[in-house]
Specification:
mainly alpha
Length: 458
C-alpha cells in the first residue's frame, strides 16, 4: 500500500517543539489544550502530533499521545493518526490507560491489515484484551487475518463477534457478511445462506447479502430461494444499488432450466443498465481529472457518475470515514471564521492548516475512489464476457430444441407450480402481483419450472 504523508504541518511543528527548549515544549502542549477547549480538534491534533513526533524525551509525550488519540476519534480519522501512532509505537506507550492503549493497538492492527503487514497486524490484534471497547474491532481484524490461513477459526471468530455484546451494529453486520463468505469458501452453503440472512434488512450491506446469499442458495440446491433474493434486488426500493452480478446469476439460473426467453430478457437488462454505466465510468477515468475531483464526484449534487456507482461508493466504510473527517475539517474552519475570537495571524494560520489538510485528504480520498471506479469498470467487463458465453449457450440450447422438435411449452404446461414452504409461525403466503411492498422485500421465493427435456419444477 502506498504510504501518504502525515499532516503537512507536523514536520515544522515538531521542529519548533524541539528547538524551543523545555519551556517551549510545555507551551506546545498547553496551546494544544487551549485549542481543544475552543472545539478545534484538528488544530489541537497538529500540536499533539508535533509532541509525539518529537519522541519520548518530550515531557508531555504520553499525555500528547492520549490527547491526539482522543482528538482523532472525534475527527473520525483512521488514516493520519494511526500512521502517527505506528511511528511512535513502542515500550513507552504501554503506560497509557488500558482502554486508550487497546484502541491504539486496534487501529494499528487495522492499518497493518490494510497495508498487507499481516504478522504485525495479528500481533497487535492479539494484544487487545476482552472487555475493552476496542476488542470487537480487533476481533474483526483477527477474523480477516484468519481467513487467509485458517478459515475454520475465522468462521468461529466472526460467529462470536456477530453476537458479541458491546459490538456496534455496523460491525456486527460486517461480521455476518464475513461469516457468510468464509462458510461459502468452506462449501458450507446452508450455513452461509443462514449467515447472510442475519444481515439486517435495508442496512448498508443488505444488497450484498442478498446477492451472495443467492449464490449460497444455488449451491445448496435451492434455486427458488436464490431467485427470490435476486427478485428483491430488482425492487424500486433497491434501485440505487450496484449489483451487476445479480443479473448474470439470474440468467444462469434460468439457463440451467432451459428457460431461454427469460435468459434473454435478463441479458438485455444487463446491457441496458450496466454497459452505459461502465462506459460513463471509463469516460471519467480516461479524462484523468485531478485526484480531489474524484472526491467531489461522490458528493450528492455531482452528476458525473451514474447514481448506482455513486451510491455504491458512498456506502463504502472507508469513504464514509473520509467524508466524516472532511466534514469535521469544514466545521472547524467555519467555527474559526465565525466566533472563535481569533484574529490576524493566529486565525489565518489555523485556517491555512485546515485548508492544506483538507486538500491533502481530498487527494487521498480521490485516489481511493479512482481505484474503486477502475475495479467497478473491470467487473462489468468480466461480466460482459460471461454474458456472451451465456448468450452462446442459450442460442445453442434453442437450436437443439428446434432440431429435436422438443415442445418446451407443453412440458412447462404439464408442470404444476407448488406453493413454496414457509415457516410455521410469523409468515403468511400470497403470490407476487407485480407490486413491491417493503414488508415483502427479502422474503420472496420462486417455484421454478424446468423446460429442459426430462426436467421438473422445483
Amino acid at each position: 500500500m502506498r504510504r501518504f504523508p502525515l499532516v503537512i504541518l507536523l514536520a515544522s511543528a515538531a521542529a519548533a517543539a524541539q528547538d524551543a527548549g523545555p519551556a517551549g515544549a510545555g507551551a506546545e502542549y498547553h496551546l494544544a489544550q487551549a485549542l481543544e477547549r475552543m472545539g478545534f480538534s484538528f488544530s489541537a491534533f497538529v500540536h499533539y502530533a508535533a509532541i509525539v513526533s518529537a519522541g519520548p524525551a518530550h515531557p508531555d509525550y504520553l499525555k500528547a499521545i492520549d490527547a491526539a488519540a482522543s482528538a482523532a476519534e472525534r475527527l473520525r480519522d483512521d488514516v493520519v493518526a494511526p500512521n502517527l501512532f505506528e511511528k511512535a509505537y513502542g515500550e513507552p506507550i504501554s503506560a497509557l490507560a488500558p482502554q486508550r492503549l487497546a484502541r491504539i493497538r486496534a487501529s494499528l492492527a487495522l492499518l497493518g491489515y490494510r497495508a498487507g503487514r499481516y504478522e504485525r497486524a495479528a500481533r497487535l490484534a492479539e494484544q487487545v484484551p476482552p472487555g475493552t471497547e476496542a476488542y470487537p474491532q480487533a476481533q474483526y481484524v483477527t477474523g480477516l487475518l484468519q481467513e487467509r490461513t485458517d478459515p475454520q477459526s475465522a468462521a468461529a471468530t466472526f460467529r462470536a463477534l456477530a453476537v458479541l455484546p458491546g459490538a456496534e451494529g455496523e460491525l456486527k453486520e460486517l461480521a455476518w457478511m464475513a461469516l457468510g463468505r468464509t462458510l461459502y469458501a468452506l462449501h458450507r452453503y446452508a450455513e452461509a445462506s443462514a449467515a447472510y440472512a442475519n444481515v439486517p434488512r435495508f442496512s448498508r450491506h443488505w444488497d450484498e447479502a442478498l446477492f451472495e446469499g443467492a449464490y449460497a442458495d444455488l449451491q445448496k440446491g435451492d434455486p427458488g430461494g436464490a431467485l427470490g433474493k435476486l427478485h428483491s434486488l430488482q425492487s424500486p426500493h433497491l434501485s440505487d444499488e450496484f449489483v451487476p452480478e445479480s443479473l448474470n446469476l439470474m440468467a444462469i439460473l434460468y439457463q440451467q432450466r432451459c428457460l431461454y426467453p427469460q435468459v434473454r430478457t435478463v441479458l438485455a437488462e444487463f446491457d441496458r443498465e450496466y454497459l452505459p454505466m461502465r462506459d460513463q465510468v471509463n469516460e471519467v477515468l480516461q479524462s484523468e481529472p485531478a485526484m480531489d475531483e474524484y472526491w467531489r464526484m461522490v458528493q450528492p449534487a455531482d452528476a458525473r457518475l451514474p447514481r448506482a456507482v455513486q451510491h455504491h461508493l458512498q456506502k463504502n466504510e472507508r469513504v464514509a470515514s473520509m467524508r466524516a473527517y472532511l466534514e469535521a475539517l469544514d466545521e472547524e474552519a467555519s467555527r474559526v471564521r465565525a466566533g472563535s475570537g481569533l484574529t490576524g495571524a493566529a486565525k489565518d494560520e489555523l485556517l491555512d492548516g485546515i485548508a492544506r489538510q483538507k486538500q491533502l485528504s481530498e487527494r487521498l480520498a480521490g485516489r481511493f475512489i479512482q481505484g474503486r471506479l477502475a475495479d467497478m469498470a473491470r467487473l462489468i467487463d468480466v461480466l460482459e464476457a460471461d454474458k456472451e458465453l451465456i448468450a452462446f449457450e442459450t442460442t445453442k440450447g434453442e437450436k437443439e430444441m428446434l432440431e429435436t422438435r422438443f415442445d418446451a411449452d407443453a412440458q412447462l404446461a404439464s408442470q404444476r407450480l407448488q406453493r413454496p414452504g414457509i415457516p410455521q409461525t410469523g409468515h403468511e403466503y400470497w403470490p407476487f402481483d407485480g407490486e413491491y411492498w417493503p414488508d415483502e422485500i427479502g422474503y420472496y421465493r420462486y417455484t421454478v419450472k424446468d423446460a429442459c427435456a426430462g426436467g421438473k419444477n422445483e
